[in-house]
Amino acid sequence: MDGWDFGWFAGRATEQRPAWGYARMLAERVGVADAVLDVQTGGGEVYAEVLRRAARRPSVAAATESWAPNLALARDNLAPMGVTVAESADGAALPFPDAAFDLVASRHPTVTDWAETARVLAPGGVYLSQQIGAGSMRELSEFFLGPVDPGTGRLPETLAAGARGAGLVVTEVRTQALRTEFYDVAAVIVFLRKVIWTVPGFDVDRFRERLAAMDALIRAEGPFVAHSQRFLLAARRP
């Protein structure tokens, strides 16, 4: 599995989109920025879409990614658009100088290092991120694992406190639960292989009995419904 292209799921699963329109919001900001960094860009699919939408390209465009399959895909997608893609472990120091970017973005990061984010932002620079909230896809997780503690690490207020602790001014926080429907068990399997934290250690043989139960449930009652949790967070370096 590589990248975050979910085109395979067409006709097999659907997910409601957040009302705020992250790609549109980011494209508007990219269009007036001089230097942009996309942290944990995945396969670069969303960043490439944003750059195509933007009114103009920034003078400096960079991205980071940690996972080798995604790193190669991101370079294929972004290098033709003039983006430098650096290999950087999640949570490690960003390989860029202080105050290098007036816009830093990150869609669904695994971790947000606020000290590093604040360091690479220029004074007046903006951070914009769409994040996965605590308890995302909880119905799906609990079907396979039983009761799951969603924890507090991905709560909007936890992330906002981290931003303020790094000296940033939080300017916007928005949350939404998004209805997701799976129309067959194959879609569930592919999703759990791609979004691996939903059911840690997922394996078809290990969960064959629960997958058979899922198949029977979908056939009898229709799509399996879960809810992904998303929040938008914007902050500014004074």
What does this structure look like?
The chain is an alpha/beta fold and 238 residues long. The protein has a single domain, classed as Rossmann fold (3-Layer(aba) Sandwich). Helix content is 33%, strand content 26%. An eight-stranded mixed β-sheet has the order 1-7-8-6-5-2-3-4, with helices on both faces. Strand 2, helix 2 and strand 3 form a beta-alpha-beta unit. Helix 1 crosses helix 2. It is globular. The termini are far apart. The mean pLDDT is 96.
Largest sheet: 8 strands, mixed
Question: What sort of overall outline do the alpha carbons produce when their principal axes are compared?
Answer: globular
CA distance, first residue to last residue: 40 Å
What is the residue-averaged pLDDT? Answer: 96
Low-confidence stretches: none
Query: What name goes with the CATH superfamily?
Result: Vaccinia Virus protein VP39
The share of residues in helices is 25-40%
| Strand proportion | 25-35%
Task: Give the SSE string.
Answer: EHEHEHEEHEHHEHHE
Task: Tell me the CATH topology.
Answer: Rossmann fold
- Biggest sheet, spatial arrangement of strands: 1-7-8-6-5-2-3-4
Count of alpha and pi helical runs: 8
Say what oligomer this is: single chain
Q: Which architecture name does CATH use?
A: 3-Layer(aba) Sandwich
Q: Find the structural class using helix and strand composition.
A: alpha/beta
* Count of strand segments: 8
The Cα radius of gyration reads 19 Å
Total domain units: 1
CATH top level assignment:
Alpha Beta
Care to give the gist of this entry?
The chain has helices at about 20-30, 45-55, 70-80, 115-120, 140-145, 155-165, 185-195, 210-220, and strands spanning about 15, 35-40, 60-65, 85, 100-105, 120-130, 170-180, 225-235. It is α/β, with parallel strands linked by helices and about 240 residues long.
